[in-house]
């Protein structure tokens, strides 16, 4: 009941924007960027993240960061995080300056709910070397949720972080923050993680997913979220529940992409060739599938028919406009 209330409230207050079959949108979450110390789990993903953002920027994607971009519960000083990951924020600023960056806050960066906090810490940045301040993410207005509405079909995609209704990370978030900041933060240095987190607690993670599936069935919406760090792309007749995964997997990060009216789950991964040279490759894990296939407002047979019709009608155009080449995209 509480989860349904939180999700419905977030849906009603969501930022709304249109998309169509020419839109390109990437969803990434749970980077948990820290201060560059040994307890900063994002360090191992830093280069992957920079490379992926560069490719998405050059390919005209809008970047939707679906919560927990920064680990503000453990590292309260944002300037330390900004200085530890300069290349990441340089790329984010490019998206922001082009009006292609949408920031959704999660439970680990919940301070972004306070616009005064955002204006104080994100609008300007101080260059200690040159002793000057300059515009950083000026005008940034983080939101709790986003609703994407298709211009032609009116199909909606509901996007939010996914902590809503998860009691320790929602209504009791302050107690969780204290435990992270003064206890678990130091254990992270030795590879020990909080067993109560949905990341490590399988039964808790599945409970969250079941509650979200109930909301999807009742409200007939396609939903994208993060939070659990468990990527999800529905198969067969599953509910249209998608999860971006996270940005702190060992040697890989995951993302959801919408382009050419199709949705897919991808992984950016470090690899090594026969000569011992490291490179980064993007792999499709699931999809691509027409978004119409996940429109549960319609009878299933109708949605399947429209999806197949779209695949046949647009195959040549989609291939000509393909945003990425699956092969040879190394550096």
Q: Mind explaining what this structure looks like?
A:
With 331 residues, the chain is α/β, with parallel strands linked by helices. The chain is 32% helix and 23% strand. The chain is built from 8 helices and 13 strands. The protein has helices at 2-12, 46-58, 78-84, 86-97, 115-122, 173-188, 202-219, 300-320, and strands spanning 15-19, 24-28, 62-66, 101-104, 124-127, 132-135, 145-150, 156-160, 222-225, 241-243, 252-259, 262-272, 278-290. The strands form 3 sheets. Strands 4-3-2-11-12-13 form a 6-stranded mixed beta sheet. A 5-stranded mixed beta sheet has the order 1-7-8-9-10, with helices on one face. A two-stranded antiparallel sheet has the order 5-6. A hairpin with a 4-residue loop joins β5 and β6. α1 (2-12) crosses α7 and α2 runs parallel beside α4. The protein is globular and about 60 Å long. Mean pLDDT is 84; it is low at 326-331.
Key words describing this protein structure:
single chain; 331 residues; alpha/beta; 6-stranded mixed sheet; 5-stranded mixed sheet; 8 helices; 13 strands; 32% helix; disordered C terminus
Summarize the structure.
The chain has eight helices and 13 strands.
Helix content: 25-40%
**Tally of helical runs:** 8
Rg calc? 20 Å
Residue runs with pLDDT of under 50 for 5 or more positions: 326-331
Q: Strand portion, in percent?
A: 15-25%
Order of helices and strands: HEEHEHHEHEEEEHHEEEEEH
